[in-house]
Amino acid sequence: MKFRRALVTVATTAAIAPAALMAAPSAFAASAAPSAPSAASGLCMTGKPSYRPVLHTALKGLPNKIAAGSGWHNFTLTIDNPSQSRFSNIRLFAGVSSTYVGFKAFPTSQVSLQAYFPKTKRWEDVTDTAGHTDGYFGQGWLGPHTHINVPMRINVKKSAPVGKAMTLGAGFYQDAQHKCTAITAATYKLQITAPARHTR
Q: Which of 13, 63, 67, 121 lies at a 20 to 30 A Cα distance from 97?
């Protein structure tokens, strides 16, 4: 829970601007049930309000509004490394919230979120163990001046309530210099609208 609370804080209060993408994507590997990062070294942001992650995250391709029951909408989660360092075992996290403030994940009965794994050529659900639309879903690595592009998609079902929503994407990784766990995150606000009415 410590990491989830920290992730919400980072995602909703930090202005994380993605750097220019300068090279081809690095490896993105499927992980059947990735665990949360180890808390042994602590969070970089704890006690360091001025800390900024080296890696940058962005969400691209989502519309501003999604009608309930309108099917799948594709977007891309990008994590960019503008530095000279190499980062291994970047834990990927994503979710869809029913509010802009904080983070309250939708149940999977209302909103589905999936990530595409190129090695298996399959879309996999992003969920937690309690049936909510958020969770860790894979890991990757980044060499100097490279980035990860993760194809993702969201399905807002007819049962989803009309109103505010927010998609979140993030990566957890070890900052060797500061000897702590860093979080890079980005959010995208959207509006869920009523299902479209078909007229003859």
A: 121
Whole-Å CA distances, 53 to 36, 111, 172? 18, 30, 10
- Neighbour tally for 54: CB within 10 Å: 19
Query: CB neighbours of 106 closer than 8 A, spacing ≥ 6?
Result: 96, 97, 98, 132, 133, 160, 165
How far CA 196 is from CA of 6, 62, 98, 158, in Å, comes to 37, 18, 20, 10
What DSSP string describes 12-42? HH---PPPPP-S-B--EEE-SSPPPPP-TT-
pLDDT of amino acid 22: 27
Q: 83 and 172 in contact (C-beta within 8 Å)? A: no
pTM over 0.70: yes
Q: What is the pLDDT of residue 41?
A: 59
The 10s digit of each residue's pLDDT in 71-120 is: 999 999 999 999 999 998 899 999 999 988 778 999 999 999 999 998 89
Compute how many other C-beta atoms are within 10 angstroms of the C-beta atom of residue 112.
20
User: How high is the pLDDT of residue 37?
Assistant: 61
Strand partners, 140: 28, 90
Residues 6+ apart with CB under 8 A from 73: 62, 63, 66, 153, 154, 155, 156
Give the Cα separation of 145 and 155 in Å (integer): 33
CB atoms within 10 A of CB 31: 16
